[in-house]
Specification:
One of its GO terms (biological process) is L-methionine salvage from methylthioadenosine. This is adenosylhomocysteine nucleosidase. Pathway: Amino-acid biosynthesis; L-methionine biosynthesis via salvage pathway; S-methyl-5-thio-alpha-D-ribose 1-phosphate from S-methyl-5'-thioadenosine (hydrolase route): step 1/2. The chain has six helices and ten strands, in the order βαβββαβββαβαβαβα. Helix 1 packs parallel to helix 6. The protein starts with a strand and ends with a helix. The relative contact order is 0.23. The structure holds adenine. The site of adenine has 14 residues, from strand 5, strand 9, strand 10 and helix 6. Adenine (ADE) binds next to strand 5, strand 9, strand 10 and helix 6.
């Protein structure tokens, strides 16, 4: 079993990269794919860059060229709703690409026209493993539910309340939904685990800088614990 690990930013791979037993690194599409072991399991870990296109390209390369069996995306996200605060964890059960809009054709927001779903479901076993890992790897609150993805850094109350009323998600980020889309097309099990760095509201970019390292530590610890139980 080989696990593909995708993060968006350098900061998000730091801990995992340090603890990995690396065999080699290969470059594709300007991305470094680090091949080796983490927690005794075979992994390919990669920084995909920010946004849906980078994440989609990266996921397809992991599947087609590195033959990964499962994909995990860890990192940070903006929280949706007043109860979710920086440091909390959101384990995705499902993901929607909130910036897809073909409503002129009668499609719902988020629905890519002619695709069989707009709501990509994470693998149930991986969700259970992630929930268990959260119980032991962090003291922060864990939420399980929908994550929203789009090529937008959300930092605006109006946008946030639109997202909430339209989709009812727990967190917003910029990669998970497209990783889910690619895994769905390839029938590869996947999971997205995000730690909250900001509330996607006014000032989100400042909170993001302040809390990102705590959030990265959280999600890296959860990943390692999860892999120990795999
Ligand atoms: N990642 C972390 N915070 C985010 C936000 N507010 N919007 C989109 N992606 C994020």
């Amino acid at each position: 079993m080989t696990l593909g690990i995708i993060v968006a930013m350098t900061e998000e791979l730091e801990i995992i990269h340090q603890e990995m037993k690396k065999e080699k690194t290969e470059v594709r599409a300007n991305m470094e794919f680090h091949i080796g072991e983490l927690s005794g399991k075979r992994v390919v870990a990669v920084i995909c860059g920010i946004g849906k296109v980078n994440a989609a390209v990266c996921t397809q390369i992991l599947i087609s060229e590195f033959n990964v069996d499962k994909v995990v995306n860890v990192g940070i996200a903006g929280g949706i709703g007043k109860d979710i605060v920086p440091g909390d964890i959101v384990v995705a059960e499902n993901l929607v690409q909130h910036d897809v809009d073909a409503t002129s054709f009668g499609d719902e927001y988020g629905q890519v026209p002619r695709l069989d779903t707009f709501d990509f479901k994470c693998d149930k076993e991986l969700v259970e493993l992630a929930k268990k890992a959260c119980e032991s790897a962090t003291n922060h609150k864990t939420y399980v539910g929908r994550i929203l993805t789009g090529d937008q850094f959300i930092a605006c109350p109006d946008k946030l309340s639109w997202l909430d009323s339209q989709f009812g998600g727990l967190a917003c980020e910029m990669e998970g939904g497209s990783i889910a889309h690619v895994c769905h097309l390839n029938k590869i099990p996947f999971i997205v685990i995000r730690s909250i760095s900001d509330n996607a509201n006014t000032g989100a970019h400042m909170d993001f800088e302040k809390f990102k390292y705590i959030a990265v530590e959280n999600s890296s610890n959860i990943l390692k614990t999860m892999m120990n139980n795999m």
